Amino acid sequence: MIRATHQTETKRSAQGRKRATGELVIGLVSLLAVAGLTTLIFDLSLLYLIRAIVLYGIMAKLVLRYAPLFKTGLGAANRVTLARSTIVLSIASIVPEAQTLSYTSHWWIVAISALALGLDGVDGWLARRTGTTTTFGARFDMELDSFLMLALAALVCQSGRMGSWVFLLGLPRYLFVVAGWLWSWLRAPLPERLRRKAGCVVQGVTLLACLTPVVPNALATLIATVTLALLACSFTVDIVFLHRQARATPTR
Fold it and tell me: Please, which pLDDT band fits residue 4 given cuts at 50, 70 and 90?
């Protein structure tokens, strides 16, 4: 009986992996469609497409290695996140050639980035609705959001609209991770807070506003400064909470 159950689970795992691989292939086709259209709009080099494919390949390998595979593959929520990734990776691949772009061409970046941000939250809603909520799914979504913020901040920085300090708008999450390598108490889990989700939305909207051609430079600088201050306050609150928690916890 135990052996039969093990064989069934193995079969389901193999079936889930096969379907997940197929979904990743479909995602690659979607990536090529978005990146191909971006290439035509901006007249980018072949290296742009290669960067996008390499980034997708790395992500796909990580997904297959760490994602809990359902009988139906990645699951509905992760499929939405995967669809978002094709947009995010297409945007991130532009960064090395961003200085060759015209100012008005930022409209395309703003449009597809807004679509990626609009889909954020749909994957979480689907996961809860279908009962497929996983730690991997939440991490996949969070890391994708962070990578998008970093790419948008780099594009704003290279646009020349404001100083290089604006790049800090894309770094909070990564600075927090690096700090966690140095101080282990920063790696403790944090309770969910609406403040963080709202901060991510404000962060994304601010970066898109800074890229939008019709927004005056002075207004974009003001918005970016205020948002950076709010993010700093939010992360400070979390750091203080974790520090107090670490001091209150007896060490062994």
Answer: very low
3-state secondary structure of 101: coil
Contact 120, 145 (CB under 8 A): yes
Q: How many CB atoms lie within 10 A of CB 208?
A: 19
Q: What is the mean pLDDT of residues 51-59?
A: 96
252, part of any domain? no
DSSP 3-state of 73:
strand
What's the CATH code of the domain at 232? 1.20.120
Phi, psi (rounded to 5 degrees) for 64: -65, -30
- Domain range for 156 is 2-247
Q: For residue range 71-97, what is the model confidence (pLDDT) as tens digits?
A: 778 888 899 999 999 999 999 999 998
CA distance readout (Å), 111 to 33, 87, 91, 156, 234: 16, 10, 11, 15, 28
